[in-house]
Write a structure and sequence with these properties.
alpha+beta; 7-stranded antiparallel sheet; 4-stranded antiparallel sheet; 2 helices; rod-shaped
Length: 181
């Protein structure tokens, strides 16, 4: 079968208008896809951080393999904020326990004190000191002291020292549990 050729000038004009309208529709669709892709790229590279938790350093709050969504535009971090930070080129998740000028003390009983106040919260594991830092320890300006929740099985500020604020990438806003993936 062959296409039916328009027989009158009105049909020719109508078919050309339809073709032009179709091209405009495709251009509009393509433009919208480009804009949506650009907005998504900006959102997930400049505003939000998507990363997968590695290890059980923050167990039970964050488990190995969980998808972590964090907010990059956070300007001020508070104690107990769960953050994504970088140490030696490796991205980690931890909890801020002390900010600049705070005094951190870890004693032999596994108790964490910040500015003389016991910090326990919902942490199930004791906080023992590790080599390299002498306690009581004053957190320097522009740094934070970060610990993992699974205190007996994690590497954190007790191993690496205080974390510079420029290495704190984002504040965790939600965690998506990996369910047998």
């Amino acid at each position: 079968m062959s296409k039916k050729r328009p027989s009158s000038p009105a049909e020719v004009i109508a078919s050309r208008r339809a073709a032009i309208s179709l091209r405009r529709g495709y251009r509009s669709l393509l433009w919208r896809i480009v804009v949506i892709a650009a907005v998504c790229w900006l959102m997930f590279t400049r505003v939000f951080l998507l990363t997968q938790a590695q290890g059980n350093g923050m167990f039970p709050a964050v488990k190995d393999g969980d998808l972590v969504i964090a907010f990059r535009l956070q300007e001020d971090y508070a104690k107990n904020d769960v953050v994504v930070y970088t140490v030696n080129g490796k991205r980690r998740v931890g909890r801020i326990v002390a900010r600049e000028t705070d005094v951190v003390t870890l004693d032999d009983s596994g108790t964490l004190l910040v500015n003389g106040t016991v910090q326990s919260g919902d942490i199930l594991y004791p906080s023992y000191a590790k080599g390299g830092i002498t306690y009581p320890y004053t957190v320097p300006e522009g740094h934070v002291f970060i610990l993992g929740d699974y205190r007996t099985q994690t590497e954190d500020s007790r191993d690496h020292g205080p974390i510079p604020m420029e290495n704190v990438e984002a504040k965790v806003i939600t965690i998506l549990r990996r369910q047998g993936i």
